[in-house]
Write a structure and sequence with these properties.
Elements: H1 5-16, H2 19-26, H3 30-44, E1 49-51, E2 56-58, H4 60-85, E3 92-98, H5 106-115, E4 119-125, E5 139-143, E6 151-159, E7 161-165, H6 167-173, E8 187-190, E9 204-205, E10 208-209, E11 218-220, H7 223-231, E12 236-240, H8 245-250, E13 254-256, E14 266-273, H9 278-289, H10 291-296, E15 301-304
Parallel strand pairs: 3-4, 3-5, 8-11, 8-12, 14-15
Antiparallel strand pairs: 1-2, 5-14, 6-14, 6-15, 7-12, 7-13, 9-10
Helix pairs in contact: 1-2, 1-3, 1-4, 2-3
């Protein structure tokens, strides 16, 4: 392990919750990880982990130290990369967090990997809120804006919500003619993974917003199951247009109540640290430049590292 080895050993052990797994990751023995952590604890005068025969867990002091270590290691890696990249093409690891619907961006990401073969990509697919700095991400793609002065952002595009169902469902249950009719239909609803709240359907009547208590026939915290259930004729779902373009084009899904939807486009943003390295700015710029991506994924601005 290098001069930052003890810090790296600590971070790997915290992430894996195991000295053995951390050792495998770094190519050393579990005892070497344990000794490195013990030396850190001796120097700091605190315990970083609670230890048991089965697992380890961070102490409050360990959790505080972990955040600092992530920043230190990230800055050290960036410093090395800045020097290395003056000598040639971008290289190193690029950590990107995408929403679960980010699978739609895979064509752009595949093209990026072909263009920059020296960059190692680590992709985290999750709808949770992440701390770009503390968790060591170079770029994070999410919907909406974020109030963090340490970050820069770029807009990928916008998207709109649509109420959709399958022709088979509507042949059986009939088409809703106004928002109140939805109370008599099977409604497939989305629950935000972070807040636990149901996503409001953007319904309106004569220009006034409606907040209806709709049936909860099925609820999911990501949109893929809702798309599948809607295609199977099991109800009506409120979905972003970027996620259902193929289903609308081939007729598997059709829209309803278009005149009763508030069309206020939401933004997709890519966020990242203000101190961008060559690899991270290359990644952000590439994603922004791919027309297939910006047409397909209309939900969030791109943070620049």
């Amino acid at each position: 392990m290098d001069s930052l080895g003890p810090l790296n050993a600590f971070v790997q052990a915290a992430d894996a919750r195991s000295f053995t797994a951390a050792g495998r990751q770094l190519g050393v023995s579990s005892s070497a990880i344990g000794k490195a952590v013990a030396r850190l604890e001796e120097r700091l005068g605190v315990r970083l982990f609670h230890r048991s025969t089965r697992a380890i867990a961070l102490t409050p002091e360990g959790a505080l130290f972990l955040r600092r270590c992530r920043r230190i290691l990230s800055e050290a890696e960036d410093a090395e990369l800045e020097i290395a990249q003056t000598q040639g093409a971008p290289r190193g690891r690029l950590n990107v967090s995408l929403p679960l619907a980010g699978i739609l961006m895979m064509p752009a990401i595949s093209a990026f990997m072909h263009a920059y073969p020296e960059i190692e990509l680590e992709l985290d697919f999750s709808d949770r809120l992440v701390d770009v700095i503390d968790e060591g991400f170079d770029a994070v793609i999410r919907a909406g804006e974020i109030g963090d002065s340490r970050l820069m952002s770029r807009t990928l595009g916008t998207f709109q919500l649509r109420l959709v169902g399958s022709p088979v469902y509507f042949a059986s249950k009939g088409y809703p003619q106004n928002p109140d009719d939805l109370k008599q239909h099977a409604c497939l609803q989305h629950r935000y993974a972070t807040s636990g709240k149901l996503e409001r359907w953007p319904l309106q009547h004569k220009g006034e917003a409606l907040d209806l208590d709709l049936p909860k026939t099925a609820v999911a915290n990501t949109i893929d199951p809702l798309i599948h259930l809607a295609e199977q004729g099991l109800g009506i779902a409120c979905l972003p247009d970027f996620a259902i373009r193929r289903q609308l084009a081939n007729g598997n899904l059709v829209t309803v109540l278009d005149d009763h939807i508030q069309h206020s486009p939401a933004r997709s943003e890519c966020y990242g640290r203000r101190t961008a390295t060559c690899r991270s700015s290359s990644g952000s710029s590439w994603i922004l430049s791919r027309t297939t991506c910006s047409r397909t994924f209309r939900k969030q601005p791109l943070p620049l590292p």
